[in-house]
Each structure stands twice: as C-alpha cells, then as structure tokens.
Amino acid sequence: MSKKRNGRRFYPEFYTDEELELELQQTEETEETEETEETEESTEPEEIIEEPTKEPTKTEEKIESIEVGENPLIFNYIPENIPELFETEIEEITGAETLPEAVCMPQIIPFDIGKAIEYARRWALDRNPNFYNFDELGGDCTNYISQILLAGGCRMDKSSSLYGWYYNNAGDKSPSWTGVEQFYNYIMKEKEFGIVAVEIDVSSVEAGDIAQLSFNGKTYQHTPFIISVKRERSGAVSFSQIRVCAHSFDSDNRPLDTYQWKKIRFLRILGNRE
Known about the structure:
This protein is an alpha+beta fold. It folds into two domains: 1-34, no CATH class; 108-273. 31% of the residues lie in helices and 17% in strands. The chain is built from eight helices and nine strands. It has helices spanning 17-43, 58-64, 84-94, 101-104, 113-123, 141-151, 175-178, 180-188; strands at residues 108-110, 167-169, 172-173, 194-200, 210-214, 225-229, 242-246, 251-255, 263-273. The strands form three sheets. Strands 1, 4, 5 and 9 form a four-stranded antiparallel sheet that branches. Strands 6-7-8 form a three-stranded antiparallel sheet. Strand 7 and strand 8 (251-255) form a beta hairpin. The two termini are 96 Å apart.
C-alpha cells in the first residue's frame, strides 16, 4: 500500500467534509490500482534454474541406508577414517577394566624351606619344650611337622577348633595339628586364610616337601619331612635318595625306602594365605 495521498500527506483535520470525501475517494482508487499491480507482478511465473544433479558419495549412501533403532535420534553409524585420538578414547571408555590380581585374591606368603629344614634338623632327635610330646598319645610325628611349618612361616589358623590349625597347649589344639589325616584335610582344602598346599608326584619331589605313609593300605599313619633329594643324571629319583626327618621312630636324614608302606603320597607347601 502506498504511503502517499495524491502527492500530499493526508491529514483529515485540515479538510472540509466535501474535500475529505473527495480525498478519501481518490485514495481508495489509488490503493486499488496499486493492489492490482502488485497482484499481477506476483502471478508472473518465476524462472526456475535447475541445478545439475550429482551422484551421492559413498558416505551419503551409507547414511541413507542407516537403520534407525527405537530412538530415531540415535544412529548406529560411525564414519570411516575416525581420528586415532577418538578411537583411543572409545577404547578407554568401553574397555573392560581388570582388577589387579592382588586385589582379587589374598596374597600368599611363600613357605621358607630353609628355615623349615633348619628347624627339622634341630629337633629331629629331640623335643622343643614349647610343645607337648604326644609320643604316648598316638604319636608325635604330625605335631613335629606342624612345628616345622610354623618355623617356615605358616601362621596358626584359629578360625575354628575343628577346621582350623593351631596349638595353645596339649588340651587346646586343633585335630589337624597332630592328626595325620586331619592335617592333610586342612592343608588341602580351599580357604581364604591359612596354609596352601598341593599334592605332587614322586618325580617332582624336592627338599621341603612332606611324605605321608599308609602301613595298612587304608588310612595314612605317618608324616615324615623331606630334607634332601638326590637325582640321577636322567632326572629320575629313587626312594633311597629321598632323605627325611621324623618323630615317632625319631629319624634324622633317614632314607625313605627304609620304611615299609603300602601307600604313599607327597605334599608341597606353597605358603600361607594372609
């Protein structure tokens, strides 16, 4: 709409009624003319410029083929040629974190074989006055072995009078401290604290290992401690070259083949789990 009124501004307060009516009439005619011109101009067809079509790039083709999941704003598409820094960040965020082994499992303090052998030789033919002598109460062999393990760094386990491993006095001790079978059951069972041991073959026997003998072929009744092993050039070992210390038939550096057994087994103390 034009802002002019027949070449002069339109101020109604300065006109008579006739002049005002004439002025209004001229103004309406002028506005109709202008609107008609504007309509004609708008109906003229615009010139359409066709842009040349271009083939989609590989990246665009991949984007068009993306399958949208449940959330339409999330696309399972990662462009090619990701910067190395970006790849590193993805690995750091999504990679599975592993805890240090020391955190996952309590630490095992290794068995000190040297100190164990030293104690075994010292008390093989004698008795430590700090411990009761069980010779008259079924035998002292396993009591002696328990003392050797204690000297080698194993700690008493007072978690249970029945399933632990400890000694306070002759009337206050665990069955595993003096019993051959009970000792075996304790050191071989899975536990979070206490002695850790494995059963081994005679071909693997070394100084610091333990032998258990069965004289009746049913249960085990004797527990000697191995202080030395001599092997042949081939690596084979014979029972005569395995030397032991023991109580109940006190022995120091005794060849293992001097015993008459029906069954034998060998145990290795790995250490003590704290």
